[in-house]
Write a structure and sequence with these properties.
By secondary structure, the chain is an all-beta fold. Helices cover 2% and strands 39% of the residues.
Length: 194
């Protein structure tokens, strides 16, 4: 039951807005690129699997300071969106929003179907070996490789482990228990760090 089949890009941890480990307060859903036209609209890249949940009157948060803005208009454009916010009527008004990340509150994100798991929910979980139920460490980061995700597991007094999120390795994710059960295949743990 690996997270690779049940995640959503809305939880991209590298831009999750989470100031500390654990459940983030904000999740990145896109990035404002540049002004579009002369009426205060902006091109926005989509970082969420649920862009339909961004709609007029939806409050989003922009930039490192999570400045709240209400969406005025939004429409599809090529591989992204064209969005405008209340109170901005010209190209000059929105210029300062260029290259800013757009967030939503994590509490506003709907549950995923079929026991799905958002990637940010894995951060802070204990990783346990199925051999002897030894705690290996804590998930500190999720790395996207293209082929699959990799869990960066921080270990006390030892080097970090890189655990690929593939079925033969990630056996079970138990959010209630706060742990991930893994099978350590040869080569995952360096001999000098076992």
């Amino acid at each position: 039951m690996s997270a690779r089949r049940t995640h959503s890009r809305v939880s991209n941890t590298s831009n999750s807005g989470s100031p500390t480990l654990g459940e983030p307060e904000f999740l990145a859903v896109g990035k404002l690129r540049r002004p579009h036209g002369v009426r205060g609209e902006m091109l926005m890249s989509i970082w969420t699997d649920f862009p339909e949940r961004l709609h007029p009157e939806k409050q989003v948060f922009v930039g490192e300071n999570y400045q709240p803005y209400q969406i005025n208009t939004i429409r599809d454009h090529n591989q992204g969106l064209i969005v405008s916010f209340d109170g901005f009527a010209s190209r000059d008004d929105v210029g300062h929003l260029r290259n800013q990340v757009v967030y939503v509150r994590a509490s506003d994100v709907p549950a995923l179907p079929d026991n799905g798991i958002y990637l940010h929910q894995l951060i802070g979980l204990k990783v346990v070996s199925d051999d002897d139920e030894t705690a290996l460490g804590i998930v500190n980061e999720i790395i996207e490789t293209g082929a699959n995700y990799v869990l960066l597991v921080r270990r006390e007094g030892k080097g970090d482990l890189l655990i690929p999120d593939i079925d033969p390795v990630v056996l079970n994710i138990n959010l209630e228990k706060g742990e991930i059960l893994v099978r350590l295949i040869p080569g995952l743990v360096p001999e000098d760090q076992k």
